Amino acid sequence: MPIRVVIADDNLLVREGILHVLAHAREVEVVAIATDEESLVQAVEDHGPDVVLTDIRMPPTHGMEGIRIARRLRETHPAVGVIVLSQYADPQYALALLEQGSARRGYLLKDRIGERGELAAAITEVAEGGSVIDPQVVEELVLNRRAEEASPLSSLTPREHQVLAEIATGKSNAAIARSLVISKRAVERHVGSIFAKLKLPAEDEASRRVSAALVFLAGRRGS
Questions:
Q1: Is-cis flag, bond preceding 2, omega within 30?
Q2: For 2-49, what is each residue's pLDDT tens digit?
């Protein structure tokens, strides 16, 4: 069965561009179009899509509607993937999107819309529970966090790499413990060590987990 997608953007040309790009993607079926936050929420209720492809800024406020909707759907429709399309390469927007976990979430720059294969591949990845971050955004994050000459990931132990990979999927410490068949306390020790080795700033736990996940994704792209 094709992946059911709802597209949300208040710009007609952007909507038409996305439709044109996806018209030949047999694995994708566009089931509804929305133009603002309210109509997007209604489209999700009416059509039960697998993935929402949404602009980051839409009516009514042209603020961060796309990210706000992604957070809302994480609670109300956790199986629905969300890909935010944005013109902003600032990693902080991606961090905001992923602060509740990276599973079924994507952040792409609008420059990628014209790349048919890449957009369809991103939709498939998110629908299957993965995450996709635009390479330019990852590059900005890595540049911002680059410490000295060596990659911070090189200092992690094999077990810490496993734990970090689990963090990148959005799992809690308890879920990681079950997945790796170790104690929750052991996971907590590994997470603390990962944060220290990656030299993440002392901020709230959720932000540090998101930052660690993005560093992991950046390292995977570069490998």
A1: no
A2: 999 999 999 999 999 999 999 888 899 999 999 999 999 999 999 999
| Residue ranges per structural domain of the chain | 3-133, 146-222
Q: Which CATH architecture has domain 146-222?
A: Orthogonal Bundle (1.10)
Q: Identify any residues that bridge with 84 across adjacent strands, giving them in sequence order.
A: 54, 107
State the Cα angle at 198 between 196 and 202, rounded to 5°: 55
Q: Each residue of 87-129: pLDDT tens digit?
A: 888 888 888 898 888 899 999 998 877 776 889 999 999 999 9
Classify domain 3-133 at the CATH topology level: Rossmann fold (3.40.50)
Q: From edge to edge, which strands make up the β-sheet containing 81-86?
A: 28-34, 3-8, 51-55, 81-86, 105-109, 131-133
What is the reported pLDDT for 68? 93
pTM: 0.67
Report which of 10, 3, 8 is spatially closest to residue 49, judged by C-alpha positions. 3
Q: Which residue has the tokens 């936050």?
A: 37
Q: For 200, phi and psi rounded to 5 degrees?
A: -80, 140
